[in-house]
User: Which sequence fits this backbone?
């Protein structure tokens, strides 16, 4: 296999000015890695990571839980470049050593697999064990594999911003913030706890083993779906447009899935990438999201009332500095919402009225 040439994707995250773009491209070319692994490839974010990696010429070893289920694999196998350079492997986060043969020979590893849903009956078994033990399982395989130069872990803003510190419009959350496990337990935020414990365990492990790791910490990820199944964050938008009477009294950070996938690849390719990267275009209350949807689709039936009578949960800011320095260009929330609605329509999750 010769040198891998990297070309522009349609949705470039490169800095705009000419010399910066050239420097960024040179840097990426010199970091071009031949073979990489993506865990949880069937998923919403990982599918976009796989797509962009194939576009950039990588050989991708992708793990899925159910290789015989076309709903988990067909959209990956039909990606451009998949026939030549995508290899699927069966692996489960909770199976010790499951990732050894996948990581073998890889120079970069993207660890994205982790359960993301809210209705759980046994948080330890359903969320915390796969997140924490799964991350250590994947990192354990990396530690045994000399070819691995860098690991990019998909963490979350869940591991950053949940610690009981006030979050108000003047507060700026950044990568120095850490969520507090006790606070998450007290609030019974089990998914948030799973991501907090997983990232914490990961940093301790890589420090001990000398592994080069970067984490990407996105908030609510929206934008087009590649997979045919509905994921949790896309469901948040579907719920609004599919006849809900009320919207939640909550303020979340929002970010486009293509920007998140690109950030992962930039983190791998850029030798100076380090630590954590918060990925949020904007924090917005659900009421603002509904307003934006109304502006985009004036005939769409949208919830008019908040689910409770309490004051709106305040918004806050999240620093974009570090991500921008990595080369990320953020897609505006309005565009991400439009892409999400159009994709939900195209996938058949949402049947709009004729007027839309
Ligand atoms: P998703 O579509 O549900 O993807 C989750 C992936 O994890 C799926 O491929 C799933 O496999 C895999 N997985 C779950 N349990 C597993 C196990 N025991 N063994 C192997 N694989 C397992 O969700 P997503 O939104 O893309 O999330 C991907 C990552 O991004 C997660 O780490 C999540 O915490 C993080 N994240 C997501 C958001 C967001 O808003 N979407 C925000 C911040 C961080 P199956 O397909 O077989 O179920």
Assistant:
């Amino acid at each position: 296999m010769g040198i891998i040439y990297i070309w522009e994707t349609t949705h470039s995250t490169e800095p705009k000015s000419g010399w910066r773009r050239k420097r960024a491209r040179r840097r990426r070319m010199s970091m071009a890695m031949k073979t990489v692994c993506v865990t949880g490839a069937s998923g919403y974010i990982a599918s976009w990571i796989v797509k962009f990696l194939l576009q950039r010429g990588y050989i991708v070893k992708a793990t899925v839980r159910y290789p015989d289920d076309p709903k988990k694999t067909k959209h990956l196998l039909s990606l451009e470049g998949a026939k030549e350079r995508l290899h699927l492997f069966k692996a489960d986060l909770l199976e010790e050593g499951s990732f050894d043969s996948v990581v073998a020979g890889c120079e970069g590893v993207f660890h994205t697999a982790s359960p993301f849903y809210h209705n759980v009956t046994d948080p330890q078994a359903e969320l915390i064990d796969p997140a924490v033990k799964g991350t250590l399982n994947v990192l354990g395989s990396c530690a045994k594999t000399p070819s691995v130069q860098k690991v990019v872990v998909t963490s979350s803003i869940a591991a950053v911003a949940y610690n009981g510190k006030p979050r108000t419009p003047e507060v700026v959350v950044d990568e120095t913030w850490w969520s507090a496990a006790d606070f998450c337990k007290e609030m019974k935020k089990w998914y948030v706890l799973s991501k907090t414990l997983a990232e914490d365990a990961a940093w301790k492990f890589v420090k001990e083993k000398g592994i080069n790791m970067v984490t990407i910490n996105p908030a609510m990820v929206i934008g087009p779906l590649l997979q045919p199944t509905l994921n949790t964050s896309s469901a948040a938008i579907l719920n609004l447009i599919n006849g809900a009477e009320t919207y939640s009294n909550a303020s979340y950070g929002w970010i486009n899935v293509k920007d998140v996938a690109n950030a992962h690849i930039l983190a791998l390719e850029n030798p100076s990438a380090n630590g954590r990267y918060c990925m949020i275009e904007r924090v917005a209350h659900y009421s603002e999201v509904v307003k934006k949807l109304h502006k985009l689709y004036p005939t769409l039936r949208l919830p008019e009332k908040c689910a409770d009578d309490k004051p709106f949960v305040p918004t806050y800011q999240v620093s974009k500095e570090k991500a921008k320095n990595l080369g990320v260009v953020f897609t505006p929330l309005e565009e991400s919402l439009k892409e999400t609605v159009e994709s939900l329509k195209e996938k058949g999750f949402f049947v709009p009225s004729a007027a839309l």
Residues 112 and 154 are 5 Å apart (CA to CA). The pocket of NAP is lined by residues 40, 42-46, 65-66, 72, 92-94, 112-116, 130, 154, 156, 195, 218, 220-221, 231, 233 (CB under 6 Å).
